[in-house]
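Bumping my old thread because nobody answered last time. Still need a sequence for this structure:
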């Protein structure tokens, strides 16, 4: 069974649990793994958001910095991290704020989320109309984030990440990924509430692929239901991710991003049946249809 929550995003309350909410992704970046460069122009980004809304998205997540990992190879043949240059706060604001403002002007009823780990960008995005801050770092990379969210009184997604993107492929394996993620999400959520963030403003995300290798993502998916024990609503994002591409590999070559749709839908359906309240996805229309069927199963006792 999936618990019912009232998610306070500041200006309104969103009910979570009776049906799955779909969060559509709009990457205002030149280098995102799935759609980098397609929506860097604000007009294209807003048009994309409007299409996702028409396809059934309940929330639109606007991001201005890619967190795809990078790895190089040293002369000796050993792997070395390739340092990723973070997008500056000024550049990130320049990318996301025009999109948020115009989208809210055209679609004032839309719940807009900003995908950022920078407190100053979060504040500017909320002033522009965003009602949710989606922080991949779990409020840890910017020491001002938790306090800023407490002041803004908006919805917040706290995601689990191990290390930084440039470190991911060099991280040691996790013994039990589910126990680690559950424990650290609980600890980080408690730290956020101590900083003043209200419990009913928080949603937790286990961060599929974020510092987890291929072997660690599937136990996290299979035992996703255990994360409900933390007592918060859950968001999951598996859309087109590399662990799905690896599973769908042919001739020892991972499936291309464009060929991961059906694998994504299988994972998203499983997540709903195990308690996910929100799915963050690129393919909103098909995810919405899959969610309607999965929600009917959940409502029937599944």
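Sorry it took so long. Here it is:
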């Amino acid at each position: 069974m999936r618990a019912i929550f009232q998610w306070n995003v500041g200006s309104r309350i969103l009910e979570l649990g009776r049906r799955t909410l779909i969060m559509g992704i709009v990457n205002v970046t030149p280098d995102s793994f799935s759609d980098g460069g397609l929506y860097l122009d604000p007009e294209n980004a807003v048009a994309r958001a409007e299409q996702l809304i028409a396809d059934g998205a309940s929330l639109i997540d606007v991001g201005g910095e890619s967190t795809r990992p990078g790895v190089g190879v040293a002369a000796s043949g050993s792997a070395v991290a390739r340092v990723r240059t973070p997008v500056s706060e000024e550049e990130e604001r320049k990318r996301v704020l025009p999109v948020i403002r115009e989208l809210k002007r055209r679609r004032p009823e839309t719940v807009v989320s900003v995908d950022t780990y920078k407190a100053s960008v979060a504040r500017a995005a909320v002033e522009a109309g965003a009602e949710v801050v989606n922080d991949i770092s779990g409020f840890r990379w910017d020491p001002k984030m938790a306090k800023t969210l407490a002041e803004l009184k908006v919805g917040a997604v706290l995601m689990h990440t191990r290390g930084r993107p440039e470190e991911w492929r060099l991280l040691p394996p996790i013994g039990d990924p589910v126990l680690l993620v559950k424990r650290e999400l609980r600890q980080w959520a408690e730290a956020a509430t101590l900083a003043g963030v209200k419990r009913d403003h928080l949603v937790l995300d286990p961060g599929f692929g974020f510092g987890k290798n291929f072997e660690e993502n599937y136990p996290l998916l299979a035992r996703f239901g255990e994360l409900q024990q933390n007592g918060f609503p859950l968001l999951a994002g598996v859309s087109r991710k590399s662990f799905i591409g690896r599973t769908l590999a042919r001739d020892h070559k991972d499936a291309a991003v464009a060929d991961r749709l059906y694998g994504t839908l299988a994972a998203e359906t499983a997540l709903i049946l195990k308690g996910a309240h929100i799915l963050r996805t690129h393919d909103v229309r098909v995810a919405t249809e899959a969610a309607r069927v999965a929600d009917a199963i959940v409502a029937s006792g599944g």
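The chain has nine helices and twelve strands. Let me know if any region looks off to you.
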